[in-house]
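Onboarding guide, step 5: your first structure request.
Type a short instruction followed by the sequence, for example:

Predict the 3D structure of this protein.
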Amino acid sequence: MNNETNKKDLIPKIMKIMNDKKIQDPIKKLLDLEKKFPSDIPLKQAIGQSYLQKGENTEALNYMKEALKIEPNNYSTHFNLGRVYQKFKKFDEAIKFYKKSISINKKFKEGYNILGDIYFNKKDFNLSVSYYKSSFDLDKTKANLFAIARLGEGLLNLYLINKDKKLINEAKEHYEFIDLIAPNNLYIKKNLININHYLGLKNEAIILEKKMDGVFIIDKDLDKLLIEY
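The system replies with structure tokens like these:
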């Protein structure tokens, strides 16, 4: 019973060690805990993450693999293994583990987001948009703002490739949604202004321009819609 009680208290202890800036060597503290709880998954993950933060990627990989052996269907272990392989620039391996994480936990927003990001950087906007849409379905709040914005950017890029007006209208809907939950965002308003001009919605564009501080020149080259990072 005492061991069970200790185990329930373990995660707060792990978090305290990892977040306490006064502790110069958190890994040593975590390894001391590991002697008492050699098969604890969160502890293995915490040690692996700590090694990853120090740039000791091989040690991180070993600990994540140990965690996977103990519990093969732990979605967060698969996600963390993806992060380690990404550090090694083994993107195919990373993608495999990220996909496994969301197949185990279909409500794991971070898994969809990181896959959306990888495919966005690969310029595979179809897959990127697909993953970001799944993320958007799970979280439509400011906490997921970056992913929602990336979804809009992906749709704009697909429009530039396919010239399908439906895509730019969909992008507009997402930017307008962001403008509601995070008003006064210059990046969002700039994109909305350009989109409205392209769609021939001059009055909507002018209203947005008046809400902005300073001077902003509309890009008249419609094949170069503003996409900022």
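Each response can be followed by summary notes, for example: Residues 1-106 form a domain with the Serine Threonine Protein Phosphatase 5, Tetratricopeptide repeat fold (CATH 1.25.40.10).
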